[in-house]
Amino acid sequence: MTTTTAASSIRALEQLLGRERVLSGGDVRYLRDATEGRGLSGHADAVVVPESVDEVARTLAWCYEHDVPLVPRGGGTGFAGGAVPIGGGIVLALERLRRVRAFDPLLWRMHVEAGVTTVEVRRLARENGLLFPPDPGAAEQSQIGGNIATNAGGPHAFKYGVTGAWVTGLEAVVPPGEVISVGGPIRKDVAGYDLRSLLIGSEGTLGIVTAAWLRLLPAPEAFLPVAAVYPDADAGCAAIERVLGSGLLPAALEYLDARTIAASGAAFPAPLPADAGFLVVSEADGSAEAAEALRAELVEALGEGASAVVVPEGSREIAALWRWRDGVSIAVTAQQGGKVSEDIVVPVERLHEAVEETLAIGRRHALDACSWGHAGDGNLHSTFMLAHEDSDALARSAAAAEELFALAVRLEGSISGEHGVGWVKRGQLRHQWSPRALALHAGIKRAWDPKGLLNPGKKV
Ligand SMILES: Cc1cc2nc3c(=O)[nH]c(=O)nc-3n(C[C@H](O)[C@H](O)[C@H](O)COP(=O)(O)OP(=O)(O)OC[C@H]3O[C@@H](n4cnc5c(N)ncnc54)[C@H](O)[C@@H]3O)c2cc1C
Questions:
Q1: How far, in Å, CA of 420 to CA of 24, rounded?
Q2: 3 state DSSP class of 249
Q3: Is pLDDT at 375 greater than 60 in this prediction?
Q4: Are the C-beta atoms of residues 179 and 210 closer than 8 Å to each other?
Q5: Is 67 exposed, middle or buried (0-12, 13-18, 19+ CB in 10 A)?
Q6: Any residues with CB less than 8 A from the CB of 114 and at least 6 apart, and which?
Q7: Please, are residues 222 and 291 in contact by the beta-carbon 8 Å criterion?
Q8: Best residue among 49, 99, 142, 205 to mutate for probing ligand 1, ranked by most atoms within 8 Å of CB
Q9: Binning pLDDT at 50, 70 and 90, where does residue 333 land?
C-alpha cells in the first residue's frame, strides 16, 4: 500500500518530469509480460517514461522520498513476471533511453543505453563485421537493459555464454536516486567487489540499468546449422553426449521433445519423419573452412541413431531454420492459448531424466506437458499447456511447477537457467540454497535498497 494516491502521484510526477513523461497507470501495455499466458497482470499508479538518466534518478528519488514502489521495465518479454507491477506503485519504462552513445567497431565495443533493443545491437554489430553473441528470443522487443537485468541466454550461449559475459561496464541509478558507474570500456577489472556482476541478473531489484558497455567479437565468417531427428529422447540425448564427448564445440546445441515437435513441426523448414520423437539443432561457426569441417563432424556425431539429418544450405535456408526455432515458444502457446513454462537447468548428463520427468509431472497433474531448450547447457523450457482462463488447470500447473523446481534441485541443477526468479519463482531459492547463503542474498538486497522499494516481491 503506498502513502500516495494514484492521482496525486501522477500530478507530482508530471510536475517533476513534465506531462509527456507520465502515462496513466491503467495503460495495460505496461502491466504484463510474457507470463500473460498464465494469467499474470499487475496494476500501477502511473507509468513513467523518462528520456534521460537524470529523469530516471529523479523518479527513483521521488519514489524513495514518498515510499512508493518502483518497477523497472524493458521490453516486457520476460517469462518470470519480473516487470509486472504486482504490488502497484510506479512502472518505469526504459524504452526512450535508446541512444547508442559510442560505437568503436575497430575496438570491438559499443556503449548503449538500456532501451536499445537486442535486435538493434546485433544488427549494428553485424553491419560492421562484428558479433554480439547473446541471442534470447523475442529480440525485436527485448531491451539490452532487460537482458542485463535477467542475464539472458539464448541458443548461442552454449559456446559464447550469457549476456553478462559481454558486459564490461554498467551505469545504473540506485537508491535513493544516485547514478553509479562500474567498469567501462575496459576488458578486465578486478578492483573492488564485483558490483557489475551483482547488478547483472538482479532483475531490477538492486538498481535501474541505464547504459552498458558491451564487448563484441569479429563475426565468424560462416554459420552452418545441422538438425537431426531421432525416434526418442534416449537416442537424442545420447547424440548430445556424443557431440560433447567428441570434443566438438558447436555454437548452439538445442533440443525439442516429441510433444514440442508435434506443436511446432508443421512450420519446420524441411519434411520431418512421421515418427519424430526428438530433435537436435546444432550449429558450426567460424571461418568458412573451419565451420564446414565442424559441420561434417557434427553430421557424423549426430547422425548415429538418427532417423533423418537435415543440413540447410545457403543463407535463406539457414535463416528459415532459426526463424522457426524462434517461433517454437509461440507455437506451443498456440496449442491451448496459454502455458506455464519454467526454465530449470540440470547437469547435461541428467537432461534425459529431466525431459522424461517433465512429462511424468504433467501426467500426475493431468496437464499436457512438453519441453525444449538449450541442451548443451542442460537448460530445459519445461512447459505445461493450458487455456489461461482455466483456473483449475492454472492451479494444477502451479503445483506441477513446484515439482519441477524440486526436480531441478534433486538433479543438482537450478530453478532458473536464464529467465530469472521474478514473481513466479519467488521463494523457490530456499530449496536450493542454505539458510546462510539466503541470508547473504537478503543482506545484499538490504544494502542496495534499504526501503525495499525496487521491484518489491521479486527475486528475493
Ligand atoms: C518468444 C520468447 C523467447 C524467449 N527466449 C529467450 C531465450 O532464449 N533466452 C532467455 O534468456 N530469455 C528468453 N526469453 C525471455 C526474455 O526475452 C528475456 O528474459 C529478456 O532478456 C527480457 O528482456 P525485456 O527487455 O523484455 O525485460 P522485461 O521483461 O521488461 O523485464 C525483465 C526483468 O528485468 C527488469 N528490467 C528490465 N529492464 C531493466 C533495466 N533497464 N534496469 C533494471 N531492471 C530492468 C524488470 O524489472 C524485470 O524484472 C524469451 C521470451 C519470449 C517471449
A1: 28
A2: coil
A3: yes
A4: yes
A5: middle
A6: 74, 94, 97, 143, 144, 145, 146, 148, 208, 209, 210, 211, 212
A7: yes
A8: 142
A9: very high
For the chain, what is the mean pLDDT? 96
The C-alpha atoms of residue 455 and residue 448 are separated, in whole angstroms, by 12
Residue 164 binned pLDDT confidence (cut-offs 50, 70, 90):
very high
The Cα 429–Cα 434 span in angstroms is: 9
What average pLDDT does this structure show over 323-342?
95
What is the arrangement of strands in the sheet containing 368-374, beginning at the earlier edge strand? 308-310, 222-230, 278-286, 252-257, 368-374, 379-386, 338-342
> What Rg, from alpha-carbon coordinates, does the chain have?
22
pLDDT band of residue 39 (cuts 50, 70, 90) is confident
Cell numbers at residue 57, please?
A: 534518478
pLDDT at 1 over 50: no
The residue whose C-alpha atom lies closest to atom 28 belonging to ligand 1 is 76
Which of 47, 92, 150, when mutated, tests ligand 1's pocket best, judged by the most ligand atoms within 8 Å of its CB? 150
- pLDDT, tens digit, for every residue of 66-125? 999 999 999 999 999 999 999 999 999 999 999 999 999 999 999 999 999 999 999 999
| Cα 76 from Cα 91, distance rounded (Å) | 11
Cell reading at 308: 533423418
Q: What are the residue ranges of helices labelled H in 265-388?
A: 288-303, 314-326, 328-336, 351-364
Q: Which atom of ligand 1 is nearest to the CA of 97?
A: 41
Residue 144 alpha carbon, nearest atom of ligand 1: 25
Average pLDDT over residues 221-248: 97
Query: Which 3 state secondary structure label does DSSP give 159?
Result: helix
